[in-house]
Amino acid sequence: MSVINIVLLCIFAMGAEQLDLVKINVTGSEQVKQLDRIGVVIDQVYPDHIIAEIEPHMYDLVYNRGFNITVLQKNISDVYLRNTMQEPKEGFRGQYLTYEQIRDSLIAIATNHPDICHLETLGVSHQNRLLLIMKISDNASIDEIEPALHFEGNIHGNEKIAWAVNFNMVSYLVDNYSSDTMVQRLINEREIWIAPLVNPDGYVNNSRYNGRGVDVNRNWGWMWGNEYNCGSDFLSENESWRFMEHFWRHPFVSYASYHSGTIFISEPWSYTSYIAPPEQNLIRHLSVGYAAFTSYPYGQGSIGMYPINGATKDYDYGCGGEIAWSIEVCYTKTPPPESIDVIFERDKPAMLLLMHKAGQGIHGQVTDSLTNEPLRAMIFVNSADWPSYSCPVNGDFHRFYLPGTYDVTVTAPGYESKTINNVVVPSGSDSSAYIDVELAPNNGLPIYATCMIGSQYVTTSSNMTYPIRALNVHDSQAYQLDANKWIVLAFDFPIHNTTGNDLSVYRSAGSGSATVMVSNDWRGSWQTLGTANSAITEFDIASAGMDSARYVRLQAQSQFMLDAIEAVQTTPGIAEDIQVEYFNLSITPTVLRNTAQLAINNPVLQPVEFKLYNCLGQKVGEMIVLPGTSYKSLQDLVAGIYFVRSSLPVVPDRFIIVK
Ligand SMILES: [Zn+2]
User: Fold this and answer.
1) For residue 65, what is the enclosing H or E element?
2) Residues facing 549 on adjacent strands
3) Run of H or E residues at 354
4) How many Cβ atoms are within 10 Å of 107's Cβ, its own excluded?
5) 229 CA to middle of ligand 1, Å?
6) 129 CA distance to ligand 1 centroid (A)?
7) pTM (two decimals)
8) What is the pLDDT of residues 306-351, one digit of tens each?
9) Alpha carbon of 41 to ligand 1 centroid (Å)
């Protein structure tokens, strides 16, 4: 061991939690969950026992609940740590890198391959480390009309082999672009996003948790809560909400999050074992394909492992219709470095299969029939009736489907919905259908909630309804919001205050009531509008002192069958012109680089305050515009849709940045 490694070992050892590998006898899934709830980290689940990791102070907690513990390996965390310090044996290339080495390697790869690599910083961790994601595609800096995929590793910081699999895939794709025709085709025809290190603080600290002690894979917004270290609120952690925003900016065909501690291809749902996800056959088809290369077992996460709330894959499939997994690749969380090559070679062809398969199914583009502007829309296919989304930048959508004949319904707020019948995905292992969908704007139609940002956990044995049933126009399909539970929904564009009532809450059945709150930030603060307590309850957002709102939060006082939330449309469709009567707002250049500016010409005599919001309603900048022309640099903004608000009511409220 080199001097540097000894120094690193000392640094890593500081603050690292000590964990022992143990066997605990159990008699059923209830007991597994009981142990999970008190902080036992469960690796493998067998019919009569689990293999788990616990901190020394937890033995009494476990004994006191009547369990037997057999110690298999004292201080397994130290074994993991030593594995990360080892040089690989001769003949093996794989090696664990430090955070700084990983960061600098990704920057170097992006710098050396600007044609096919685009490195984005989604933000920083709670201990100020970069949250990096690499996009690998031809024309990497442009959002093209291509199927996108997401791969990530190390959301649990001490599962370092999960980092290695993803990091090696970045290198593999880049290194083989010019020599391997299959890799070349995948890079040219897909947008492959890879985040090897979702939880850099956990990686550095050799901890499952992030820098604030939160389990990031319990912190996401689908049925969040009631889990050990799941965070102070849904999506409270930088390592979750930054990736959540990325998720909404780039609809993916599939979303694979890598883990270790067992081997398993873990499908949605994780939050319930009482129902299987809609389109389980599609998820299973790809699981089988993945398993053909890896021999990993597969199945619904809540059944094959144990039920958990707030997992990424439930959010990805639940909120976005993306085929999602946690993929567990190794019984040991951080095996010796010579395992890296072996495990990567095992998963590599399966990952390439997912990239290939992202081209199969139903693809298309949604545009405004009058302006030809691309539209973000909701895509529903056949009886599964489960939404996915077109890209906010290009309006393109891509969903994996098996050969067959489908009806595709496309909806966008303020537009006439359209159903295209008999869309044929021909037979063949990689066949696809492509449809162009033009939607006609209609000023008379209501706008409605289009995204489920977060919902609180429910008792899944008695509530098998889905939160996304509260989206779209009222249709008598409802989410059962149980007493004292909440849900947060987003509109694509602000609900503006109009004369009279602006917002209607539809209840499909029963006599429940719910407190209705609004905000321009998905986290709040929330202004209360009142109580929804009838089939249709109308509200005036001015009653809460608001002139606009993008987010609605409902908290049930008693079980409330939430069908939909609709609002009055105040703008002529979605595509808005950048020119307005009093203000001249321009973005230079149109396709932004780091030098871009927002220029606002203010011909009136008083200063005007401008605020910039991202597509989740969070304020990302502000400026005071004095008479004359003011400029604001946009170099800190990532690609996406932004909104401008000002103290005057006549300013355009949307612009798109492409990087
Ligand atoms: Zn994990």
Assistant:
1) none
2) 495
3) helix 338-357
4) 14
5) 14
6) 20
7) 0.86
8) 999 999 999 999 999 999 999 999 999 999 999 999 999 999 999 9
9) 9
